[in-house]
Specification:
Order of helices and strands: HHHHHHH
Number of strands: 0
Number of domains: 2
Number of helices: 7
Structural class: mainly alpha
Strand content: under 5%
Length: 143
């Protein structure tokens, strides 16, 4: 997914959702994308616009959130779980899940830590601090 343009990434969401809805075969990545899309009915209409969804700008200053970024964070968290990177993230998320009991809600809480980590890294012009991110997620499990 990395190294692609914004349009190419968005097209992956549109195509995965269209294929899943049409009952076509999908790759493992497309299946993961379609699963995340299915959890967000508020984005279905956007994705069903096809090409028109690819160029839309989402302006936080006008109260808009970017659904592609939101779904991408779900996928990033799932990828982290598949590789246990940063080391210990599986245990931290399991502990949070034991407390919250809702996997989708857990991913949304973890997104707060991920978003903060990405924002700080971008601001500092460096790679995200994996240890700080892990500590943030571990802290969620203790609250």
């Amino acid at each position: 997914m990395f190294g692609q343009s914004r349009e190419q990434l968005r097209r992956m969401y549109v195509d995965a959702w269209r294929k899943q809805q049409a009952g076509e075969s999908v790759s493992p990545l497309e299946a993961m994308i379609a699963e995340v899309v299915a959890m967000h009915p508020e984005y279905h209409a956007l994705l069903e616009q096809g090409e028109d969804a690819l160029d839309k700008d989402f302006l936080p200053g006008q109260g808009e959130s970017n659904p592609f970024m939101h779904m991408g964070m779900h996928i990033a968290i799932r990828e982290q779980l598949s590789t246990d990177r940063p080391a210990g993230i599986i245990d931290a998320i399991r502990a949070l899940l034991a407390r919250v009991q809702d996997a989708h809600a857990v991913e949304h809480r973890v997104m707060e830590c991920l978003g903060q980590s990405l924002w700080e890294a971008q601001r500092a012009g460096q790679a995200p601090d994996e240890l700080a991110y892990l500590r943030c997620v571990q802290g969620l499990a203790r609250r």
